[in-house]
Specification:
This protein is of the alpha/beta class and about 200 residues long. It is globular. It binds adenosine-5'-diphosphate.
Length: about 200
């Protein structure tokens, strides 16, 4: 069975850290739209030139652009056994586009892991990072953008029965353990005689 996951959470919630761990453990690629976009900016490609000002301001790049990136990326053979999307989708239209893509591929998402972290903790964490867009004013703006444009996905995925809440305020290894519990429950045969035992 393929393991198709989305990591949802505000900037600084630890999505990248957890995605790296998931990749190592389950051998499925982590696909981070932020990393892909930054690589384009660094390489000075036409796409990079187009998106640079959005990243610098902490604004989202246009939906169509990231949807196209994801569409091509999911075509790669390494996603056959599964994938972890980190930082995508970030808007309801992106989520709808993803659902349409996955419906076509006949592989619906297994779960959306929402890493919950309060605002003060986010600001403290991001204050310690040294990325171009981690300046305090831009950080504040990225959190606002999350609350405004991405937080509606919490209800969207709850409505689709996909949402799994993870307390992202805990230390990284505790967060990892909580995520692993969810994944093991996904991989356990459902309704079988052992399924209740595997969960304990
Ligand atoms: P963080 O989670 O800390 O905000 P990311 O690397 O995920 O960091 O994103 C950095 C920037 O890349 C965002 O502020 C935005 O400009 C752009 N970006 C990444 N993913 C998306 C997306 N799915 N839709 C629109 N913009 C995106």
């Amino acid at each position: 069975m393929a393991l198709d996951l989305v990591l949802l959470g505000p900037p600084g919630s630890g999505k990248g850290t957890q995605a790296a761990w998931l990749t190592a453990k389950y051998r499925i690629p982590a696909i981070a739209t932020g990393d892909i976009l930054r690589a384009q900016v660094d390489a000075g490609t036409p796409l990079g030139q187009r998106v640079r000002s959005y990243l610098d301001r902490g604004e989202l790049v246009p939906d169509q652009l990231v949807v196209d990136i994801i569409r091509h990326r999911l075509d790669e053979p390494d996603t056959e056994a599964g994938f972890i999307l980190d930082g995508f989708p970030r808007t309801v239209p992106q989520a709808q586009a993803l659902d349409a893509m996955l419906a076509e591929l006949q592989r619906p998402l297994d779960a959306v892991l929402y890493l919950q972290v309060d605002r003060q903790a986010l600001q403290e964490r991001l204050g310690q990072r040294h990325r171009q867009d981690d300046r305090p004013d831009i950080v504040d703006h990225r959190i606002e953008v999350f609350l405004d444009q991405t937080a509606p996905l919490i209800d969207y995925y709850r409505g689709h029965g996909k949402l799994r809440l993870i307390n992202g305020a805990e230390p990284p290894d505790r967060v990892t353990a909580a995520i692993d519990d969810v994944i093991r429950s996904l991989l356990a045969p459902s309704g079988g005689p052992n399924s209740s035992r595997t969960a304990s």
